[in-house]
Design goal:
- The protein is mainly alpha-helical.
- 71% of the residues lie in helices and 1% in strands.
- It is built from 12 helices and 2 strands; from the N terminus they run αααββααααααααα.
- It has a two-stranded antiparallel sheet with strand order 1-2.
- A hairpin with a 2-residue loop joins strand 1 and strand 2.
- The termini are far apart.
- 31% of the residues are buried.
Length: 285
Amino acid sequence: MRTEQRLATPTRPRAVLAWIVLLWAGFYASFALARPPLLDDADSVHAEVAREMLLRHDYVTLYANGIRYLEKAPLLYWSMAACLKVFSALGLTGPMARTVAVRLPLAFAVLALALVCESFARRMFRSRRAGLYAALILLSSFGIFIFTRITIPDAMVCLWITTALWCFWRTEEAPAVRQTRFAAPAVRPTRFAPNDWAQSHVRIFCWAFGASCALNVLTKGLIGVVFPVGAVAIYLVLSRGWARAWGRVKELYPWSTVAVFLVIAAPWHMLAGLANPTQGQPTPF
């Protein structure tokens, strides 16, 4: 019983959620959405890409001022275009409304990132206070705030990497949870195999890991899969050695996880390649 209490993860209190949302609203969902105005650099260019996406009804090939803009992944621009579409449907088409619309996706990304960090710290340290501190530190971080004043996808990249690592951490928790959950025969009958509960959740978290990497690829490119997979690989090798690390990888449903990754990440790349067959090919000077 003591082991089970020690390994139990505390739930998130409503007060913690309220503090997170309140601090996020004060820093990211109030004045910060409209001030400062969009700058004549990355801000205006990226907002223009989202605007032309709606004008052209082309969600595959990105354009900026009528020129193909294929060096960027599309997820940030899709989310900005969706917000512009909603604001337009509500009749909010002024300059300030459009500024708010293009900054909303990054603001929501920071809120999601704070909630993931809170869950990560709370589960890792088995402490509600650790989760709250992690979220408050992130929301009060000067770097996060500055990088969301410009419409660049870095906050989203941080969200997907953190989510991927959180999913992997949940797979590492499964053996400990399985031991406590099925330790007492009086609670679970012996015919109820441990894998029936724990492994089903491991599969889900592995697929979520692949989905997070895929969304990151659609946000920033190849680093979206290289960084989280590299971090997991280094951790497995350092903590288990080469042989046991490879054995652990086999337990994490690698083929179905890769399939989930490809189902999400591959279609846009294939469609963009088919729509722009002459791009990316070397030409003579």
